[in-house]
Amino acid sequence: MKFVKTITLLMTFCVMAFGNMDRVNALGGNPGFWPEDDANVSAFPAMVNNLDMIQASGAGNATGAATVIWGEGTTWGFGFDGASDTDKNDWLNLMWGNGTYGATFSLGSSSEEIGENDPTSTFGLGLGFGMNMDFGEVGVNFSTGSSDDGTDADQPSTMGLAFNLRRAQDVWLFDNMLVGFSMENEATGDMIDNDMGLSVDLFTALPVGDGVSATFAMGFGYHSNTMNDGMDGSEDVSSSIITLPAVNLGVEAEVTDWAHVRFGLNHAYVLSGSAGDDYSWTGASSPGENGMESNFNWNFGLGFDYGSFTLDMVLDNTALFNDPVRYVTGRNDDALSSSATLTWNF
Questions:
Q1: 133 with 114: CB under 8 angstroms?
Q2: Nearest to 248 by CA among 34, 22, 4
Q3: Is the pLDDT of residue 89 over 80?
Q4: Which burial class, exposed, middle or buried, applies to 141 when counting CB atoms under 10 A from its CB (0-12, 13-18, 19+)?
Q5: I want to staple 31 with a disulfide (CB 3.0 to 4.6 A). Which of 24, 27, 168, 204 is the partner?
Q6: pLDDT category, 87, cuts 50, 70, 90?
């Protein structure tokens, strides 16, 4: 039986995720709450019209990505993935914008044939479209993929669809709303694994002091899964989770005019969870079970802004904060950051 581990608050399905997530990850992990950040280009492709940059993300790791975007009137962007086997099969990652609309296109494929053996192959396609309308920003993503191992066995395939909306909305303490909906289906013969997610979040910028920006978000999340292992006589097994509230808080503070400290947290309370016909829970699941629990996570980061060049880092929280002197004196064995992104804006 499969249990859902996370609920994604911003729904995207692409062969490649465009944009820098290191700043956003240090602020709670959801770019939808930070509309000015380039990480929004995956969920809201019209964001490409606001960008002229060269970016390298995942710096210091064997895998990562590089992106270049520029243009006047018409904007073009190209993305290049890192060193993993899947990334090597990316043939094209393209972005386009005409000032009003934005689109992303990703295509990956591979094939191999050795001697008289049947050929094997993989294929993946991702499409995204976005525009800014009177009622808000809209983004739609579609993806499909398949593979063939060269045998007569059933072959796996996937398909995903996502919709995102962000708009001004005065409700209670908040003045903006973010809505995400997604569906993803996987099948191999009679074996199925289908997911559906919905999130509705309200967010606002807090009235903090000079040199400090903070965003607070609170919302609702729903996720359902239907799975069948495809064996003779097997029946569908369904699970669902409702989180309320789902909270995100991000704070960014200037230390100097070129350095920022960042903090982000997210918390989700499982208001209702069920799996199959005989298991349900609220809050934390029972000991020994693998269901999703109510959760709390936080992160810290640094940002360095030298005008046209920025460096964003997600800090290694445990090692750094347990023994900061070792890092200050340069005697640390572990890396300062778990991830870093370099961006040149022009």
A1: no
A2: 34
A3: no
A4: buried
A5: 24
A6: low
Mean pLDDT of 97-109: 95
Element (H, E) at 25: helix 22-25
CA distances from 131 to 96, 136, 218 (A): 12, 9, 25
Confidence of residue 18 (pLDDT cuts 50, 70, 90): low
- Percent helix, strand and coil across the chain, each to the nearest 5: 10, 55, 35
State the residue for tokens 């899947």.
86
Q: What is the pTM of this model?
A: 0.90
Residue 192 · residue 1 · CB < 8 Å: no
Q: What's phi and psi for 230, nearest 5 deg?
A: 80, 0
Q: Mean pLDDT for the chain?
A: 88
Domains in the chain, CATH or no CATH each: 22-345 (2.40.160)
Rounded Cα gap, residues 135 and 232, in angstroms: 50
Among residues 34, 24, 78, 81, which one has the least CA distance to residue 57?
81
CA distance 92 to 77: 11
Q: How many CB atoms neighbour CB 289 within 10 A? A: 14
